[in-house]
TrEMBL record:
UniProt keyword terms in alphabetical order: Cell membrane, Membrane, Transmembrane, Transmembrane helix
A GO term from the CC aspect: plasma membrane
Transmembrane segments: 12-31, 43-68, 88-109, 130-152
Residue span(s) of domain Casparian strip membrane protein: 8-138
Oligomeric and partner information: Homodimer and heterodimers.
A Pfam family matched in the record: CASP_dom
InterPro entries reported for this sequence: CASP_dom (IPR006702), CASPL-5 (IPR045009)
Name recorded for this polypeptide: CASP-like protein
Claim: Cell membrane is one of the keywords in the record: yes
Location of the protein in the cell: Cell membrane
Membrane topology: Multi-pass membrane protein
C-alpha cells in the first residue's frame, strides 16, 4: 500500500495528531484560565468540543505509535472508515464551536465595545483560545481530507 502523508500509522500522521492534541489542550487551558467563561454558552461548547477533539486525537496518536512500533498497516477499509467518520464529526464540532465563540467575541469586542467598558473581562484570552481552536480545526480538516482520500483508494 502506498504511504500517504498524514495517513494512519505514519510519522506524519502521528505528528498531525500530536499537533491536534497540543492545540486543543492549549485552547482548553487558556479558556478555562479566563474568568467568567462559564457564563457564555459558546465558550462552554468550545471547551467541550476541544475536549472531545483532544480525546479523539490522543487515541489515534496512541494507535499511530502502536502501528509504528509494531510496523502494522492501519489502512484497511474498516479502520479507515472509522477514522473518516470520527475526523469529520470532530472537525464539524470543532468548527462550529470555534465559529460560535468567535461570533460572541466579535460581538462583544468589536460591535458593542463590551471589552473596553469592562476591562476586568479577559477578552484577549478568549481570542487566543479561539485562535488555537481554529488551528486545531485546520489540522483536523487536513486529517479528515487525507483519510477520505485513503478511504477512496482502499
Amino acid at each position: 500500500m502506498k504511504e500517504i502523508i498524514g495517513g494512519p500509522g505514519t510519522v506524519s500522521g502521528l505528528l498531525l495528531r500530536i499537533g491536534q492534541c497540543v492545540f486543543a489542550a492549549a485552547s482548553i487551558s487558556i479558556m478555562t484560565s479566563a474568568t467568567e467563561f462559564a457564563s457564555y454558552t459558546s465558550f462552554c461548547y468550545l471547551i467541550a468540543s476541544m475536549g472531545l477533539q483532544l480525546l479523539w486525537s490522543f487515541g489515534l496518536a496512541c494507535l499511530d505509535i502502536y502501528a509504528l512500533r509494531r510496523k502494522k498497516d492501519l489502512q484497511n477499509p474498516v479502520l479507515v472508515s472509522l477514522f473518516v467518520v470520527g475526523d469529520w464529526v470532530t472537525a464539524m464540532l470543532s468548527l462550529a464551536a470555534a465559529c460560535s465563540s468567535a461570533g460572541v467575541v466579535v460581538l462583544y469586542a468589536r460591535d458593542m465595545n463590551f471589552c473596553k467598558t469592562h476591562p476586568d473581562l479577559p477578552c484577549s484570552r478568549y481570542e487566543i483560545s479561539i485562535l488555537l481552536a481554529f488551528i486545531t480545526w485546520l489540522q483536523v480538516s487536513i486529517s479528515s481530507h487525507v483519510m477520505f482520500w485513503i478511504l477512496a483508494s482502499v
